[in-house]
Amino acid sequence: MVRRDKINYYLDLADVVSQRGTCLRRRYGAVIVKNDEVISTGYVGAPRGRKNCSDLGFCIRQKLNIPRGERYELCRSVHAEANAIISAPRDKMLGASMYLAGREVSTGEYICKSNSCSMCKRMIINAGIEKVYVRDTADEYRVINVQDWIENDESLEGQRGY
């Protein structure tokens, strides 16, 4: 029996968490881990008590043809990264890692080369998370040092999207 490497194990968990998502466009799951212990998980969905896009049967951003990475203030959902951070105590997030997996709802395919939006990047920075692992395929992933987001601040140039 071949044992799954630990990074892909946590990315597999993020993928399973994403299955709870209610977005009609993309499914994302996030898992925060520190010292080999899962601290919290999060998936994409409307705030508690509000109707999800999957319940409504439409996505307002899709209806308005808004491109990926833009105008998130119109989105009904809270992102997976934000939901995982909201559910975790800050002292457990300091120095932790976040694992992200995303799939296109229409095809079920992994979202290759995805990244956190600028708002989630700011939350990850403030949470004290040190590394973000992002799945590209079933076995391939990228490692992002959060310090790079601090040093290479895209908001200074007004960049949109991700």
Protein described:
The chain is 30% helix and 21% strand. It contains seven helices and five strands, in the order αββααααβαββα. It has helices at residues 6-18, 53-56, 60-63, 80-86, 90-93, 118-127, 146-151; strands at residues 26-34, 37-43, 97-104, 131-135, 141-145. Strands 2-1-3-4-5 form a five-stranded mixed beta sheet. β1 (26-34) and β2 form a beta hairpin. It starts with 5 loop residues before the first helix and ends in an 11-residue tail after the last helix.
Describe, in short, the structure shown.
By secondary structure, the chain is α+β, with helices and mostly antiparallel strands. It contains 7 helices and 5 strands, in the order αββααααβαββα. It has helices at 6-18, 53-56, 60-63, 80-86, 90-93, 118-127, 146-151; strands at residues 26-34, 37-43, 97-104, 131-135, 141-145.
Chart the SSEs and their pairings.
Layout: H1 6-18, E1 26-34, E2 37-43, H2 53-56, H3 60-63, H4 80-86, H5 90-93, E3 97-104, H6 118-127, E4 131-135, E5 141-145, H7 146-151
Parallel strand pairs: 3-4
Antiparallel strand pairs: 1-2, 1-3, 4-5
Task: Please supply descriptive tags for the structure shown above.
five-stranded mixed sheet, 162 residues, alpha+beta
